[in-house]
């Protein structure tokens, strides 16, 4: 089974990054605006509404406050996935910098290049979104 391991350095504290990652019902605001238009929660099930009208149904498998780790699995999407499971882990990395580790396991392996492109672009959007939120929060306190 292929694994994509992506490390993202974010100019924010681990607490700020974890706050965004663990807010599983606000993906469309706090992590990947533009990639997702809305997020609908129903218990542990999350449905991401895409700008093109597509939907991705996921199960939130774990939100571990102590370890700052969130895991989810895709139940249904337009992609021909046989399996998709991913997790985010938030780690301190120097002064007010956070390493966000995104690990994705999936089948079939023929989707590797497409999923890698999505992870790369999603990582960039997450970094920009969290850093912008932190800057906005700093300005509002001044």
TrEMBL record:
InterPro entries: LFS (IPR053249), Polyketide_cyclase/dehydratase (IPR019587), START-like_dom_sf (IPR023393). It holds the Pfam family Polyketide_cyc2. Coiled coil: none annotated. PANTHER family: BET V I_MAJOR LATEX PROTEIN DOMAIN-CONTAINING PROTEIN, LACHRYMATORY-FACTOR SYNTHASE. This is SRPBCC family protein.
């Amino acid at each position: 089974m292929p694994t994509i391991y992506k490390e993202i350095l974010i100019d924010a504290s681990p607490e700020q990054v974890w706050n965004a990652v663990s807010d599983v019902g606000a993906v469309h605001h706090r992590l990947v605006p533009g990639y997702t238009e809305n997020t609908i929660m129903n218990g542990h099930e999350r449905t991401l509404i895409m700008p093109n009208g597509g939907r991705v149904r996921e199960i939130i498998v774990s939100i571990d406050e102590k370890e700052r780790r969130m895991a989810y699995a895709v139940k249904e999407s337009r992609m021909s996935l046989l399996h998709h499971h991913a997790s985010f882990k938030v780690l301190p990395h120097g002064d007010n910098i956070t390493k966000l580790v995104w690990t994705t396991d999936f089948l079939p392996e023929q989707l590797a290049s497409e999923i890698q492109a999505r992870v790369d672009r999603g990582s960039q959007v997450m970094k920009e979104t969290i850093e912008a939120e932190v800057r906005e929060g700093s300005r509002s306190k001044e």
